[in-house]
Amino acid sequence: MKKMTFIAALLTMLMAAVTTANAQEENGFKKFNVREDFQENGFEWFHEAELLCAGDKQKSNAMTIGWGGIGTLWGRTALTVYVAEKRYTKEFMDRAQYFTVMAFDVEQSKVLNYMGSKSGRDGDKAKALGLHTAYTANGTPYYTEATMVIECKIMYAAPFDPQYFKSDAPKNMYANFPAGIHSMYIGEVVNAWKK
């Protein structure tokens, strides 16, 4: 009896994973190989602003990011994002195993503006914008209105240490920066979808 219960539970979990994996296609996304088919200029992509999201099915939060990097590290395709100490999203990133980075069309710039100027501490930003939250097979949140979603598994996370600042650029940045020093999160790209 226990064996049958275990098998039934396992089948239910597998079916849920398949259903969630297909949810991206149902939302208009197609999976792509980020290493071979990422067409954006890596030096400009983050500068144009993207959306970072972390959390789970109970609660998540997103914020606009303008800093980041994409490339390879430790033999993995990697994406690096930075979150300041006092940002609400940092709490979610520190608890997360995965995060998503999303791109939006130019016409959707209100999403990036709103997400970058409001705090999730004050209310549900996604709900206020009418965004629809969906989840990857790993349970990572993303918005169905995005045009590209990259899911990453966190490999490394640490705050910047001012004793290692070697130029005036970071020293000047943090001299009067009220949000605090940024933490760096390096994620292995495990999935990528685009419309």
Quick tags:
195 residues, alpha+beta, Pnp Oxidase, Chain A, two-stranded antiparallel sheet, 6 helices, 10 strands, globular
Rg for CA atoms: 18 Å
Structural class: alpha+beta
**Domain module tally:** 1
**What's the oligomerization state?**
single chain
Query: How many extended strands?
Result: 10
Put simply, the count of helices is 6
Which class in CATH terms? Mainly Beta
CATH homology superfamily name: Electron Transport, Fmn-binding Protein, Chain A
Strand content: 25-35%
What is the string of SSEs from the N terminus onward? HEHEEEEHEHHEEEHE
In which range does the helix fraction lie?
Answer: 25-40%
CATH architecture: Roll
- Here the CATH topology equals Pnp Oxidase, Chain A
Largest sheet: 8 strands, antiparallel
How does this model look, in words?
- With 195 residues, this protein is an alpha+beta fold.
- It has a single domain, classed as Pnp Oxidase, Chain A.
- Helix content is 30%, strand content 34%.
- The protein contains 6 helices and 10 strands.
- The chain has helices at 2-26, 34-37, 88-95, 109-117, 125-129, 168-175; strands at 30-31, 50-55, 60-65, 68-73, 76-84, 98-103, 133-135, 141-143, 148-159, 182-194.
- The strands form 2 sheets. Strands 1, 2, 3, 4, 5, 6, 9 and 10 form an 8-stranded antiparallel sheet that branches. Strands 7-8 form a two-stranded antiparallel ribbon.
- Strand 4 (68-73) and strand 5 (76-84) form a beta hairpin.
- The termini are far apart.
